[in-house]
Design goal:
Helix content: under 10%
Largest sheet: 41 strands, mixed
Strand content: 35-45%
Shape: elongated
CATH architecture of one domain: Sandwich
Distance between the termini: 41 Å
Number of helices: 4
Length: 684
């Protein structure tokens, strides 16, 4: 999500403060030809022959009924301006002495803007006798046909080949089913039971210091660091209680009293393993791993606190620039985080927060922005800095109340793509990451509304919990049993892959995304953003070659599961409950997406919303207590093909299989029919 003012934002390189990004894949608007014929079914056309560049790209659905009403629906593409379009009935111009309806107003065709979702309707004997309807674009070079529908069957008065489509799409009998609704058949179906959770206890870190025993630098080199808890220099040796906790006691050669961050850095240089005893260690600079085969660990996990303060880059956090490193059991506070620019790194049981020491108490307001602003783009930041990275893992780590991403994996773009591969996330938590837009103020509620100044804000308005794919190539990324809640934008976030510069232009090839999996993950209450342009705000936002299994979404501000520009991705045994817009959203040039044995329930708008998508396979999908949103003037439980009246993306679903089991008493399904689809819509 790098660059600025491109519609879709995100956290980009560490040197880019605005961090705007591009997920709005503006693919070529596809023009699709559809002819439905057979029996008394006659025809519908969404023509897509290549047009000259000056001709608007538009899809038009044409239908007629036996009462002599011809209707043309603008179904996607660009708006047609007054004087740019003409309608012919059997080579005769649309009679201007006849009325037609555009947004419920009677206006001649040559004076009305015709935009997505609006219809032109002609009533009368002229329509009864029509065997052909043609829409042409009238430009400086003359008239060019946009859409032409010919009769392919016989029918009384010539209307026959239109009538079945009209009934199917527009609702010939509104007293039977509302306009635009596909009625549900009466079959019954049994929903498959969910698969049980995996046995996570068998998943262990892959990077183990016991494998390093042959390294001369590592063998028998352990240092212990203690802190007195104050600055009194009279503490030349640790208290007896600390000494007694170390098996065999400690002796002067490997026992060091902490004075400042250099104590840690010196011993990391001189020893293979540095063990920190219980206490608070105030660090006034960075901790650096410049050599391989090193461990920094708490003797008792969770009892070592490192408040850090470093507002500038290269200051106030842990930086790992050498391979074969383990960091374990620490609590990092303030600006403290972990930046990884090398391979073979394991982070285990590390907790990070932008709060100051002691602020994570039970009675503080988590919505109040913390005072510290991280110098890096993620509290756990994996940065392919001019080289590919691999074999990086996080076990039992937590990012809580952070002014930047909990996790961010990325690269700076220098005309060379780099990969981050074979990464593993197990039992990790990202909670309350993000508090607004850099340089702005934000309101939060703590009994009453208060305004917080800019210096307390996030690095970006696009902060997420787990932002795992930005400008780098992502290969073999596996996320197990992780949890995201109350993050500013998405809980789990994977960009569609565009590399755009600040001017909105392409600056590199689309990123690779290969074999990404999320298993047994949970995403709750994400999308706290108050930014006016916010739109991710979802439990899971993803794109290509990604599989989610047994994942849960609850009460997210936009969608539970959101696919944009996606390819070859699937959801298996996933459930959304109560996300405010849509349970499952698949849009903007997606293809080969599978939603298998999933549930959407208690959504105030849509269970399934998809448009501009091909080969969508929806199997054993169940929607429960979905109250429905407003679309085409009616309430819907699921919607296929409509997208906010946005001509760039409001294109049909094609070549797809849709199997939905819905509550009997819930609203039904709007479908802007595309070609090659099979529907199996069932009441529960």
């Amino acid at each position: 999500m790098s660059g600025s003012n491109r519609g879709i934002p995100g956290p980009a390189g560490r040197h880019i403060e605005h961090d705007a990004g591009v997920s709005e894949i503006i693919g070529a608007v596809l023009l699709i030809a559809l002819v439905v014929a057979g029996g008394t079914l006659v025809g519908v056309a969404l023509f897509s022959q290549p047009l000259p560049t000056q001709v608007p790209k538009v899809n038009i659905v044409i239908g007629a009924d036996q009462n002599g009403t011809v209707t043309l629906v603008h179904n996607g593409g660009e708006a047609l301006n007054p004087g740019q379009y003409l309608v012919y009935l059997d080579q005769t111009p649309w009679p201007l002495n006849k009325s037609f309806v555009n947004n419920n107003t009677s206006t001649p065709a040559d004076t009305t803007v015709w935009s997505v979702g609006n219809s032109l309707t002609l009533r009368g004997s002229d329509a009864n006798l029509t065997d052909n309807v043609t829409v042409v674009y009238s430009g400086s070079s003359g008239n060019v046909t946009i859409t032409s529908v010919n009769a392919v069957g016989t029918g009384e008065g010539g209307y026959g080949f239109f009538s079945s489509l009209f009934e199917y799409i527009l609702g010939k009998h509104p007293e039977q089913y509302p306009e635009g609704i596909v009625p549900l058949p009466t079959q019954q179906v049994t929903h498959y039971p969910p698969v049980g959770p995996y046995n996570w206890s068998n998943i262990q870190p892959r990077i183990d210091y016991t494998d390093w025993a042959g390294q001369s630098e590592w063998m028998n080199t352990t240092a212990y660091i203690y802190t007195s808890g104050n600055s009194d220099s009279s503490y030349d040796t640790p208290p007896d209680v600390i000494t007694s906790t170390v098996p065999g006691g400690m002796s002067a050669p490997n026992l060091f009293r902490f004075t400042d961050v250099n104590t840690i850095n010196d011993e990391l240089h001189n020893y293979g393993r540095v063990v920190m005893l219980d206490g608070v260690y105030v660090c006034n600079g960075p901790i650096r791993f410049d050599n391989s085969y090193k461990i920094l660990m708490a003797q008792n996990p969770g009892t070592v606190y490192l408040p850090m303060n470093g507002p500038s880059y290269n200051d106030g956090y842990i930086k790992v620039s050498a391979p074969n490193v383990i960091i374990s059991g620490l609590n990092l506070e303030g600006t403290g985080g972990v930046e990884i620019v090398s391979s073979y790194v394991s982070v285990q049981g590390v907790n990070v927060t932008s709060r100051n020491h002691g602020e994570l108490s039970a009675n503080h307001d988590p919505n109040e922005p913390p005072a510290n602003k991280a110098p890096i783009n993620g509290m756990f930041f994996v940065w392919a800095d001019g080289q590919p990275l691999s074999n990086i893992e996080f076990f039992n780590c937590t990012a809580r109340e952070c002014n930047t991403h909990g996790w961010n994996m990325n690269q700076n773009w220098n005309n060379v793509p780099y990969s981050i591969s074979n990464t593993l996330f197990v039992n990790c938590v990202a909670s309350y990451c993000g508090y607004g837009s850099a340089g702005d103020t934000v309101n939060y509620i703590n009994g009453s509304t208060s305004t917080v100044s800019a210096e307390h804000q996030s690095r970006s308005e696009w902060i997420t919990g787990f932002d795992l794919h930005e400008w780098q190539d992502l290969i073999e990324c596996h996320v197990y049993n992780c949890y995201a809640d109350n993050n500013w934008e998405s809980g789990f976030h994977f960009e569609p892959g565009a590399r755009y510069g600040d001017n909105g232009e392409d600056i590199g090839p689309r990123t690779r995304s290969e074999n990404v999996t999320l298993d047994n993950c949970t995403s709750i209450d994400n999308g706290r953003s108050t930014y006016s342009g916010a739109f991710f705000q979802s439990g899971y936002y993803l794109s290509r070659n990604t599989t989610l299994t047994n994942c849960t979404s609850v009460d997210n501000a936009n969608a539970g599961f959101y696919v944009q520009g996606g390819i070859n991705s699937q959801f298996v045994n996933c459930t959304d409950t109560g996300s405010k817009n849509t349970g499952f959203l698949v849009i903007k040039g997606s293809s080969d997406i599978t939603i298998d044995n999933c549930i959407s329930k208690d959504n105030p708008r849509f269970a399934l919303w998809t448009a501009f998508t091909e080969n969508l396979q929806v199997k054993n999908f169940q929607q429960l207590n979905v109250t429905g949103g407003t679309g085409f003037g009616t309430q819907t439980q699921s919607i296929l093909g409509w997208y906010k009246d946005d001509s760039r993306y409001q294109l049909p679903v094609t070549d797809s299989y849709i199997q939905i089991t819905a509550d009997k008493n819930s609203p039904q399904i709007i479908n802007q029919a595309g070609s090659g689809n099979t529907y199996d819509l069932r009441p529960s």
